[in-house]
Amino acid sequence: MAASVQLDHVTLKFKKFEALKDVSLTLEAGKIHGLIGRNGAGKTSLLSLIAAFRVPTSGKVLVDGSPVFENPEKMEQVAFVYDKDYKEETEKAKKLIALASHYRPHFDMDYAEHLIKRFKLPIDKSVNKLSKGMQSALNVVIGLASRAPITIFDEAYLGMDAPAREIFYKEILKDQEEHPRTFILSTHLVSEMDYLFDRVVIIDQGQLVLNEPFETLEARGASVTGAASDVDAFTADMKQLNAQQLGGTKSVMIYGELDELKRQEAHTMGLEIGPVALQDLFIHLTEEAS
Ligand SMILES: Nc1ncnc2c1ncn2[C@@H]1O[C@H](COP(=O)(O)OP(=O)(O)OP(=O)(O)O)[C@@H](O)[C@H]1O
């Protein structure tokens, strides 16, 4: 089960400060959305509106066409996983999982047990005694096993080591094939997670920069790799986002579409053309927006 999200001219103010400024966007049902933005861009503010933790100052936040705020039927369709403060949480991990299974209508306990094993989560420990990475794994177990039609992970990986993050990413992809839902993944680990995204949403200083399919975004640039002197000659009059050199081999990320003629020229020169890195595009687009 998956649901769509629509923001219609949404503004969120904290006193006079506008954390979100007239944001309108649609998140498609059944897609994995990567939400990226600099620190303080407004990602958590946006997500807390979708999860109905807050009400917008103006504008509408709709889940499958109906307002989500104070709407229990829509609110139970949204799972919002974020970096909770568990300092005072003395219940055991298994108790929190059992509680979630009661109030989440699509919760799958068999899947939760599978995830507990995958993350080696010590469910008999009090939650405040779990390591930071284990607390994150607990949040991820609850978020994934809830199978909420809209599942939001707001930097849910904090404290997780690389193997645990890898398990998290693989489980998202595997479960999405079998039980499609709408995921929103807010992250600063852009280069690590970009392969998960069907669509990319970038916000900057409270404003929407773009909301596009990943392939369309990737086509906005390219990577050019080959002998350093040839790469330099080929990219001389192009907008360069990033360059790396190892010995005589250079790789340059360029901004701008390469037409067929240019691609043939690169081929003739023995240069390899690949996709542009989302991380480099993101840095460029947010600098441009500023
Ligand atoms: N409760 C609040 N009161 C006042 N200002 C707030 C509040 N919550 C957020 N803000 C401000 O709103 C802006 C957006 O914050 P938000 O947490 O949404 O950003 P973010 O993109 O999630 O950032 P980060 O990547 O650093 O977590 C920031 O300038 C922040 O200081």
Automatic annotation (TrEMBL):
Q: Which residues form the ABC transporter domain?
A: 5-230
Q: One Pfam family this chain carries?
A: ABC_tran
InterPro entries, per the entry: AAA+_ATPase, ABC_transporter-like_ATP-bd, ABC_transporter-like_CS, P-loop_NTPase
Keywords assigned? ATP-binding, Nucleotide-binding
CDD domains linked: ABC_DR_subfamily_A
**Single annotated GO MF:** ATP hydrolysis activity
SMART domains linked: AAA (SM00382)
What Gene3D superfamilies does the annotation carry? Answer: P-loop containing nucleotide triphosphate hydrolases
By what name is this protein known? Answer: ABC-2 type transport system ATP-binding protein
